Amino acid sequence: MPARGTGKQRACLSCSLILTASDFKKSGCPNCPFLAMKSDGERVLQCTTGTFEGVVASVKPQESWVAKFSRIENFIPGAYALRMTGQLDQETQEALEEAGRYIRGRPEDD
């Protein structure tokens, strides 16, 4: 059975990094500072999801073929969700697309 979010853990809808909601609020997402989650609990809920399946952990993402396959090779070492449910708001999605950033979140009806 695939690993699922426990409710305390959340995955960033931009990069899929898994942290607790309090960690996202305390420090923001280290891969996605442009999401401005630091010190903003509402923004944390908008930019993360507690509904995810599967986890891949990477200690040296730049050297890992699994990290490259999962598109996390340029992110910090950590645990990442393989599949998420949820999506960023339209304005944030457009800003990411204009910046050439790959969006990992999936629509709610997927």
From TrEMBL:
Subcellular location per the Swiss-Prot or TrEMBL entry: Chromosome, Centromere; Nucleus
Domain of life of the source: Eukaryota
Keywords, ordered alphabetically: Centromere, Nucleus, Transcription
Pfam families per record: Spt4
InterPro entries (UniProt xref): RPABC4/Spt4 (IPR029040), Spt4 (IPR009287), Spt4/RpoE2_Znf (IPR022800), Spt4_sf (IPR038510)
Keyword Hydrolase in record: no
Biological process terms in GO annotation: regulation of DNA-templated transcription; transcription elongation-coupled chromatin remodeling
Ranges where the Spt4/RpoE2 zinc finger domain occurs: 9-85
Keyword Transcription: yes
UniProt GO MF annotations: RNA polymerase II complex binding; zinc ion binding
GO cellular component: chromosome, centromeric region; DSIF complex
Functional summary from the UniProt entry: The SPT4-SPT5 complex mediates both activation and inhibition of transcription elongation, and plays a role in pre-mRNA processing. This complex seems to be important for the stability of the RNA polymerase II elongation machinery on the chromatin template but not for the inherent ability of this machinery to translocate down the gene.
The family this protein is said to belong to: Belongs to the SPT4 family.
Name of the protein in question: Transcription elongation factor SPT4
Organism: Mixia osmundae (strain CBS 9802 / IAM 14324 / JCM 22182 / KY 12970)
Gene: Mo04834
